[in-house]
Amino acid sequence: MLQSKLFYKTSKTKSADTESVSHDLLTRAGFIDQLMAGVYTFLPMGFKVLKNIENIIRQNMESAPANGQEILMPVLQPKENWQKTGRWDSLDILFKLKGSGDKEYAMGPTHEEVVSPLAKKNIFSYKDLPISLFQIQTKFRDELRAKSGIL
Predict the structure, then answer these.
(1) Which of 15, 28, 41, 130 is the most buried (most CB within 10 A)?
(2) Residue 21 contacts residue 28 (beta carbons within 8 Å)
(3) Would you kindly state where each structural domain of the chain is located, as residue ranges?
(4) How far is Cα of residue 24 from the mean position of the Cα atoms in its chain?
């Protein structure tokens, strides 16, 4: 594709909103666009790079010795899972939501609370081990000051 046909054009000027050199370069090169602190849109070239990185990770995780199996766990997680681990009230970065009927949910900053019950349901003996599961997914953290850029 011709550069003149790309959705986003590059910029020579430094943005006032960028705090790190990498953030500034990714923004100026047209890979990402910052919607607000900690929230980004991956533009066409940035999205292509992201997908390529995911594929490299996938290839390495699925090959020996890892022999990983990719799964996709839900972003929305029930309050009960988080209460069992004692992290519903102790994790200060947890996005909490109320659904219909006053049901409470968390948006996953991590997925231990989902994968542990899943493993309990599916691993019956030491003979089922070792098992290697992985996922590639967006995480949600309610940070006071999102300063780490894209991780």
Answers:
(1) 28
(2) no
(3) 1-63, 66-146
(4) 21
